[in-house]
Amino acid sequence: MKDCHVHSTFTDKNCDSLDKYVAAAKAKGIEELTISELLEIKDGAPSFAFNWYKLGVKREKDSTGFNLNVGLELSLEPGIHDKGFRTCHDRGLDYVCASTNKVGDKNISDTSFFVGKNKKDVYRKYFEYVLNNIDEYIDCFDVYTKLDQVIRFNKDKRFNYDDYSDILDAILEKLVKNDKGIEVCTLMSTDNNPLPMPYMTILRRYKDLGGKIITLGSGGSQA
Fold this sequence. Notes:
Blueprint: E1 2-6, H1 18-28, E2 32-39, E3 41-42, E4 45-46, H2 50-64, E5 68-76, H3 81-89, E6 95-100, E7 102-103, E8 106-107, H4 119-137, E9 143-145, H5 165-177, E10 181-185, H6 200-208, E11 214-217
Parallel strand pairs: 1-2, 2-5, 5-6, 6-9, 9-10, 10-11
Antiparallel strand pairs: 3-4, 7-8
Helix pairs in contact: 4-5
């Protein structure tokens, strides 16, 4: 088994260090880890020192002999395509996944994001942002991760594909047409929800439309 999406203390103090991940992976029979730290473009620059990050992964790989890859989770938002493209293509990366974490200037994890709003309206607007981001950044990533993560931050996690089928079908068709995969993130299981992210209805529809690439990632959970 391969875990294609791990965050470490390099960018998130709430996560574990690389040596702890390697030890946990060996204990669980995981053969390979891809360290895919969350990268945001802030004021035209990457949100962390990429070269130091890459060097840290290399040193851990050399010291442990474990199969570690260097990846990124690129946080998408309008207007940063050129910088994102250069960052993802000029760094010798093994893996790039993409996610949408903001709608406008509001982070979807903000506690006020859903306040006073209709759930369906919020979900629809979020999926519209995802579709627009995928259109703009389709040449920047390998797989899309946490496709329906907006559900994670709402108290009511019920979800009906048919309510958003026009937008979701457009998203999935775009991914399939461009040979892009979907990452199944296990992070939702840490939120008292046993279902994968994205939901199985999305994964089944991706397959029905001809999708063939599925990866697995813990997406920031601890070892």
